[in-house]
Amino acid sequence: MQKLIKLILLVLLLSSCSVFRTLENVSRLKYKIHSAVNYKVVGISIENKKSLKDFSSIEMLKLSSGILKGNLPLTFSLNIEAKNPNDGTGGYPKTDLTLESFPYKFFLNENEIIDGNIENPLSVPGIGESTIITLNIEFDLAKSFKEKSLDDILLLLLNIGGAGGSTSNIKLLARPVVGTPLGKINYPNEITIVDKTFN
Length: 199
Hints:
By secondary structure, the protein is an alpha+beta fold. 28% of the residues lie in helices and 36% in strands. It has a single domain (2-193), classed as Sandwich (Immunoglobulin-like), CATH 2.60.40. A hairpin with a 2-residue loop joins strand 5 and strand 6 (111-116). The chain starts with a helix and ends in a 6-residue tail after the last strand.
């Protein structure tokens, strides 16, 4: 009987160690905004534009009409870089992880705009390299920035999506669900994802 109890305790101890190590591996999964591409507003590409002068008269007419109608749809692809450092070095076992779900809130200029999720699970292998998560962002600028003029909206777009644009005004709050060898693990809290640096 004592041998059985010791065996059960040993199994429980090993299981708890395995669970702890898995949680530790998941916590080492890092994210940052990699890039944002293919910006289009009412179907007009802005990636090659540097200023308001780069919009043609026909494009400005289309944009002005959109503002008047309260319909100015913006679409672009936001690429998130996910890095799994669990490659078997540094005392950590090699662990392949899967993003089962990636519920997020998208912020522009600190304003929450939309929420969303990935369509399918995504593998993040433990090879010490990065995996790109592509989020298709779509929302109506006219509704999200009602108080701004067309020029203000276009200048904002040029700052983030025009030639030489930056993603510094973009932020995500996400609460990933990660698939591990022990099952799915939900992040206890939302994480903040910005550009340039991993969270």
